[in-house]
User: What shape does this take?
Amino acid sequence: MAAAPSVDRHYASPGIAERILAALRAANGAAAPVNPETLAPIDHFHGRGVVATEELVVLLDPQPGERILDIGSGIGGPARWIAAKRGCHVTGVDLTAEFCDAARALNAATGMADRVTIIDGSALDLPVPDASFDRAYSQNVVMNIADKTRCYREAFRVLRPGGVLAMSNICAGEGGEIYFPVPWAATPTTSFLATPEETRADLAEAGFEIVSFRDTSDGLLPAIIRDRERVERDGLPPLGIHLIMGERIREMRINSARNAEDGRVRSIEALVRKPG
Ligand SMILES: C[S@@+](CC[C@H](N)C(=O)[O-])C[C@H]1O[C@@H](n2cnc3c(N)ncnc32)[C@H](O)[C@@H]1O
Assistant: This one.
């Protein structure tokens, strides 16, 4: 019997960091710097890329010297961005071994290996001690997780009292079942969208106080429609998420725009606190 498609196999491919570094050299020249800015068009695997990461940074407000956790850190772009901009240490945990390998290689290539640590592991069983982080964040990860309460309880466990979690992700809209494939899943087997209301309730059930909870769909829709128009008109750019996901990202992007236009998805941004 064929194995059920798994979340990490959806994302995985060999040689991700090598492809990215080769594309960066081809686009910017052999001696071009490798840093969070030059990697930004490739490094942030979520709608609106580094712009969305920067908005999350403002919400999270990490302070110099703090210990920050990235839950579902991908190839480490947001972690490097935050460590570089805010002078803190970021630990990333991710399920996809090939993404963790790429993140470590890019940490080394940017000279940031001492400021960003990557651990292979699951958000459902975080391989870090209780109360070991000041702040945590997660971007576009929980869409792959069925047991969201367990995921939020794990985040709660590893934060110190008074610590905060900032989250941004895609939620279910009222428009019906989504079109596949989308960037986080090829089929419904590994896609688990909660509504904004369910997300808020799950976070509260895990013990968090809700500091802020915002529907960001109105900002997302124009951005992903522009993105689809650009891809349809110009094709894929030299530097982009296709270096991670391959050409299939084109169809995934088109479906993301259709899902948003039809109200099949919404996007949210939340800040929640572990009571102090
Ligand atoms: C769309 S990517 C986002 C990556 C990163 N957060 C970013 O915004 O650049 C989703 C990531 O979630 C990770 N992921 C999915 N389920 C996970 C789980 N249960 N535990 C840890 N990571 C998970 C995937 O491996 C993938 O790296």
Summary: The chain has one domain: 7-273. The radius of gyration is 18 Å. The CA atoms of residues 236 and 247 lie 8 Å apart.
